[in-house]
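Regression check, PLZ case 443:
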Amino acid sequence: MTVEQKRIVKTAIPGPRSQELQARKLSAVASGVGTTLPVYVERAGGGIVVDVDGNQLIDFGSGIAVTSIGNAAPRVVAAVQQQVADFTHTCFMVTPYEEYVAVAEHLNELTPGTHDKRTALFNSGAEAVENAIKIARHHTGRQAIVAFDHAYHGRTNMTMALTAKNMPYKHGFGPFAPEVYRVPMAYPYRWPTGPQNCADEAFEEFVALVHAQVGETNTAAVIIEPIQGEGGFIVPAPGFLAKVSQWCTEQGIVFIADEIQTGFCRTGDWFACDHEGVVPDLITTAKGIAGGLPLAAVTGRAEIMDAVHVGGLGGTYGGNPVACAAALAAIETMRSDDLVGAARRIESIMLPRLAALAEKFPAIGDVRGRGAMLAVELVAPGTLKPNAALTSAVSAACHQQGLITLTAGTFGNVLRFLPPLVIGDDLLHEGLDILEAAFAANA
Ligand code: PLZ
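Current build output:
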């Protein structure tokens, strides 16, 4: 069923039917599971989410960077319907099937680098990260893992340890997995001596800290998001990723790129590492890979991936056939509809408009991102002091007008934009108009 690509706000948001459902949610669902915007969804497609009150919201979130090819994308719907009618599950570890192998072949081909690769499939991003760590430890025989300030890698025990931010992800959930060490991120906007020094100085600090506090020969892996997602869409200073990756190679340390949020055309390339020609040893993917079905992967150098003994990796549902069928259709869509080009087009529309907003509203301290992964960081004008209150106010004002926006950042002061790559130009502009009005009313 196609969804008309038009914003319609016919009730208060959330509307009465959504409010009823929210009341049921509050008494049935664990309160730890929060909701950003409690409109209950009936249908979605392209750049529009339709709620149970008949409102049609413009989607600048893609379910947190998942529905890059659009919601209920036609090829995915057809592939899933066919697969679900053929068989729904056998467990790849028991009696395998072609779809899993085909997804692995695509990932081996599409991810950065032309070396021999292998892939293993899982259910969620966090599970992929957990497994990347297992593989790196097994391959190196070392234990320590180095992660960065502002990192987000998931909510399981190991990945909570890797994630930097306490609230809401870690608070009260310890103890966390041991042998995780944290180093500064090359965060240009907040680098004390200025963005021009950021890559070199952050790299020097990284090397010095690993040497002094961890020891190179104890270090199994360095894990980094090539653009940090939940941490606030922080694009590392140019050159930083390449330096870290090169140094890891020299030290026999596995360099893991967590491309769970940045992967699959989101940033205007197949993977964010591609922008800088960085070739990770292991790469974790999820989110955009399967058009909304739960699937995740670890892909990497054959000699690292295959260091693990037979039977050492797996899980009941990892690479479920329905999710794999969806992934094959999603990848086909990305290729044939040039979604790399679509992400670049979104950047070319949004970035100048966000830059113009920053001229107008001094609370916008930084505009950044790549492709269809863009953000503004809000501060007290003329300072670096994070302005989380304005961030929430602007986001809430957008929601009222039927624009789905998300926030991010260690300090809760980043408004981030992740539209589906198939969104039309009109909806993009309309969304940006709403954003501008929200700033005018609140900033
Ligand atoms: N690595 C880089 O962005 C998921 C988290 C939403 P899962 N980001 C959205 C929330 O509040 O839980 C993410 C990510 C990066 C790992 C993950 C984890 O992926 O599929 O949510 O486990």
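Comparison notes: The chain has a mean pLDDT of 98. The radius of gyration is 21 Å. No diff flagged against the previous build.
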